[in-house]
Amino acid sequence: MEKLFDITLKNRKILYRILENTPKEQLVKIPAGFRNSIWWNIAHVVVTQQLLVYKMSNLEMKMEDAIINKFKKGTVPDGTATDEEIELMSAFLFSTAEWVEEDYNNGIFKEFNEYTTTPKITLSNVEDAIAFNVFHEGLHLGVILSLEKALLGS
């Protein structure tokens, strides 16, 4: 599991650099041919990790429902991001990754509600959820890199 936690943290560092170095108007812009923005993708991966790991384990998530409801699967970007939201998500990029590792090492994940993801991967335990989350975050990093290229051309 240690390798999965390490990969997640490395990915989160990349997302943080993108979040910190991209002007807000570019973060929220949805280029032609895309359905979401860099901002939505970054917030979505953080929210999804909480849903996959904590909610599916019947544990309290570590962020407010309003944030989760704004960026969970099936949502669409509203084209806005406040400075406060960006600061909060910047902090959550690291804290949520650290909390999962700490909570896993402390053995708090005792239950899990089996869940089949959109790509038809069935998650049967928290280890499956953590592993799938690495895959999920990698997919969204790829989308973000494509969004960056599209924005450079616009």
Please provide the count of β strands. 2
Main beta sheet, described? Answer: 2 strands, antiparallel
Portion of residues in helices? 55-70%
Number of helices: 6
| Strands side by side in the biggest sheet | 1-2
CATH topology description? Four Helix Bundle (Hemerythrin (Met), subunit A)
Regions with little confidence, pLDDT below 50 for 5+ residues:
none
Give the number of domains. 1
Strand percent estimate: under 5%
SSE sequence, one letter per element: HHHHHEEH
Average the pLDDT over all residues and give the rounded result: 96
CATH architecture: Up-down Bundle
At the first level of CATH, the class is Mainly Alpha
Distance between the termini: 41 Å
Overall geometry comes to: globular
Q: CATH superfamily name?
A: dinb family like domain
Compute the gyration radius: what is it? 15 Å
Class computed from helices, strands and strand pairing: mainly alpha
